[in-house]
Amino acid sequence: MKKRWLWMVAMALVFSGCSGIRVNQDYDPAQQFGRLKSYAWLSESQPVTGDPRIDSSLRDSRTRSAVEQQLRAKGIKKVDDADAAFYLRYEFVLRKKIESSGTGGSVGFGRASHGRYSGVGIGTGTSVSDYDEESLIIDFVGRDSSTLYWRGTGAQRYSEYKDPDKAIKSLNKLVKKVLDQFPPK
């Protein structure tokens, strides 16, 4: 019984650890993704959101570096605009989210010494909290700058890090998860 309980707890931890980043993709099924072997950035800087937490040149250069590294690993190289098979753009979006822990309950019973006093307590409660969720959207766009070939999105709980290495690691993980979906299968 104890081994079974430990196994169930271990599996729950494994599956909960995999749920940190949610990814999705949309694409043109008629597109021949095998011919997309070179790209250029559509713009030289990230779109301005008005939120200073994500509007920074540090975050822009880190995001571009992570995207370029992932695409290079897939054999897709960065080239000059004139030689690009497609253009690349990205955007971050922060949204306020609300989560609830569900309803919980408890019942307690107590008795004092010599059986003279006793009591029963019942408690219920729901925990509600808000948090920021960041979404990264990466678009592969045609040379006409308006035809969307592929869009990958990844969403996770937003965190601010005091250590730049942790911020870079988190961003690299998000970019990798999004681009792991490309090319679509």
Automatic annotation (TrEMBL):
Q: Which Gene3D superfamilies does this entry report, sorted A to Z?
A: 3.30.160.670
Which Pfam family, just one, is annotated for this protein?
DUF4136
Superkingdom field: Bacteria
Secretion signal: which residues?
A: 1-21
Q: Where is the DUF4136 domain?
A: 23-184
Q: Does the keyword Signal apply?
A: yes
Enumerate the UniProt keywords alphabetically: Signal
Q: What is this protein called?
A: DUF4136 domain-containing protein
Q: Which organism is it from?
A: Desulfoluna butyratoxydans
